[in-house]
Specification:
mainly alpha, Rna Polymerase Sigma Factor, Chain: A, 2 domains, 8 helices
């Protein structure tokens, strides 16, 4: 099986008994799922456990799923349910990363040697991370799914159990709330906007 095989081709191959196909799916989605659940719950350590739980549940259930299911949306649905269950066990609150735990890794997109630009990217990522933690779970979830992981509106609807119209509306409200909180967090008090 080639690495560039589609998710659906890999799912079909796995259902036919090719365990290597699941290994390819795992390699393809390991980092994105880890990043997603880590940001949902606000903890890298919990993110590792939840990602492992997600892939275990997916492995066990994949043989019973419908072939027409979009694998990526289905996998993110499992990850979302794991993250929500984790948050409920913790009383609905994400872990405060200000208390010593580092935020999930933000991959560098620019490899230039400009230290000022690098510092600005780190500071911006920290503000974004703090603001995401302040948002309601549904807002944080939809922003991560769409803007960070690139899921389509249809896939997000499958993950969140919403219509495309509801996804559009929720995403609009989530972005508006994020922008407002980001401006409040990024602009020092007394300087205005």
């Amino acid at each position: 099986m080639a690495e560039e095989a589609s998710d659906e081709d890999l799912v079909v191959a796995f259902k036919r008994g090719d365990v290597r196909a699941y290994d390819m799916l795992f390699r393809r989605y390991q980092a994105p799922v880890f990043n997603y659940v880590s940001r949902m719950v606000g903890s890298r350590q919990a993110g590792e456990d939840l990602a492992q739980e997600t892939f275990y549940k997916a492995f066990v259930a994949l043989g019973r799923t419908r072939t027409e299911t979009h694998f990526r949306a289905w996998l993110y649905r499992i990850a979302t349910n794991a993250a929500i269950s984790h948050l409920r066990r913790r009383g609905g609150q994400s872990v405060s990363l200000d208390g010593g735990e580092d935020p999930p890794e933000v991959p560098a997109t620019d490899t230039s040697d400009d230290p000022e630009a690098s510092q600005l990217r780190r500071e911006t990522a920290e503000v974004v991370h703090r603001v995401l933690r302040l948002l309601p779970d549904s807002y944080r979830q939809i922003l991560l799914l769409r803007d960070h992981h690139g899921l389509s509106y249809l896939e997000i609807g499958e993950v969140m159990g919403l219509s495309v119209e509801a996804v559009t509306s929720l995403l609009f409200r989530a972005r508006r709330e994020f922008r407002q909180r980001y401006l409040e967090a990024a602009v020092p008090p007394g300087l205005g906007r």
